[in-house]
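Pentatricopeptide repeat
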Amino acid sequence: MKSHMLLLFAYSRMGNVAKYEDIVNQIEESRLEPDTFVINSMLNLYGRLRQLEKMEKVLATMEGQYKVDISTYNILINVYGRAGILDKMEELF
């Protein structure tokens, strides 16, 4: 899992969604559970690339299966603020 995390970090920094999603699929196929860190980095990646629909889909999945933490909320507030979606940003604040 540690090597997966390093790859996820690298692909996220590069903005390479396809490679990032491939690694997440490998994690799921190997029956490993992505943790809150993986999910948060995915939210951050989609948010930075303005893929808000994908980000919100991940968030909906996360809220049912993973712990939403302060980092999650900070990512969302930042993304919505940069996108000018102030009503959603204020809901989270």
